[in-house]
Amino acid sequence: MTARIHIVGIGDDGLDGLTGQARNLIDQATVLVGPTQLLEKVPASDAKRIVVGSNLEQLQQSIRDLGEQPAVVLAGGDPLFYGIARYLTETFGKDHFDVVPHVSSMQLAFARVKESWDDAYLTNLATQSLDRVVDNIRTAERVGIFTTEDISPSVVAEALLDRRIDYFTAYVCEDLGTPDETVTQGDLTSIRGQSFGVMNVMVLVRKSGAADRPSGSANRRLFGNPDDLFLQSRPKRGLLTPAEVRCIALSELDLTAKSTVWDVGAGCGSLAIEAASIATQGKVFAIEMDAEDYGLMIENAKMFDVPSLVPVHGQAPEAWKDLPDPDAIFVGGTGRVVPDLVSAAVPRLAQGGRIVVNVSSPDNLVSVQNVLSKAGVVHDVRMINISRGQYQMERVRFESLNPTFLVLGRKSK
């Protein structure tokens, strides 16, 4: 295959919305390749038409069979935005293709509802499972979804409501860029009961101040529970200790059923709750100064039913003044105050006790190490890089979480 092939983006308004360059490429092509709904937007001509749908193997073979014929592959909107261009350039090489984009219908949808999309979670239900998408929506601020004929906006709304995710305003944008363009606004309950055309984009905007709801799953692990099982605050989401980091931290705390634990800067309580699931005959004191997060921690503790958890609303180190000395301490958080908290906490740690400090910046890492060294605490460091799989175009890609450091210390007996 040596011919250069043009991948041309086309919108719902068909040829009327194309630039002169894009129309000339289509007019001069001897072969047009694309899905039926896009080929129908191009008037009849002498060009051979090859209909391909979502079958990627069929598309590959059609491209191979082109030889040196001038050809245009029609794609919806911007072919490089959740479109077919990335797949083709990765499969055959970039040198075989030129890409002529149209305005993406996703871009038009966000423009119609007057919302920024620079930090939105964007996805395509033609290539992503609904369960995976719903899990990602739970913690998003804004969402853009390419729906499908089978997974319509009403199906998406139903799936979200089933998981208690009811804190979004929904917009369904149909036939964008055409005279029949329609934008429907409502809450998820109202969207659930409506029917929409196939050509639509669904936009979700989180209601102001809404907290992330837990998934409601009946399954509970001793530790390492998925992040979405915990009620979390917005816009501070991301401060929750990720499940993978929690597993390592809890193992290094070396807890027993009778341990006394301090979680300093407990946030919504994810680590403290799982520590309390282990130290069932001991006490886990979860210290949090933020009133909103403290309230969420109490709600999470009720869901997980951990009687050994003792929420403490206050600012460390004053908040732990009257607490019993701990066998294990976890310190999490950001800012320059973390090394000071570690310095104040170590003298209270029982002989032979463990301390684990979670920091995200190299500066704090060095400062915490210096504090532990001066206190005579034997310590080690782990740098944790976690990437979680995301599926796109039938391929797995990996989305990285922010790197983090765990400083692991043991107070000599």
Automatic annotation (TrEMBL):
Tetrapyrrole methylase domain mapped to chain residues: 4-190
Record keywords: Cobalamin biosynthesis, Methyltransferase, S-adenosyl-L-methionine, Transferase
Pathway: Cofactor biosynthesis; adenosylcobalamin biosynthesis
CDD domains: AdoMet_MTases, Precorrin-6Y-MT
A GO molecular-function annotation: protein methyltransferase activity
InterPro entries: 4pyrrol_Mease (IPR000878), 4pyrrol_Methylase_sf (IPR035996), 4pyrrole_Mease_sub1 (IPR014777), 4pyrrole_Mease_sub2 (IPR014776), CbiE (IPR012818), Cbl_synth_CobL (IPR006365), Cbl_synth_MTase_CbiT (IPR014008), Cobalamin_biosynth_MTase (IPR050714)
Gene Ontology biological-process entries: cobalamin biosynthetic process; methylation
Annotated protein name in UniProt: Precorrin-6y C5,15-methyltransferase (Decarboxylating), CbiE subunit
Protein source organism: Rhodopirellula maiorica SM1
Lineage: Bacteria, Pseudomonadati, Planctomycetota, Planctomycetia, Pirellulales
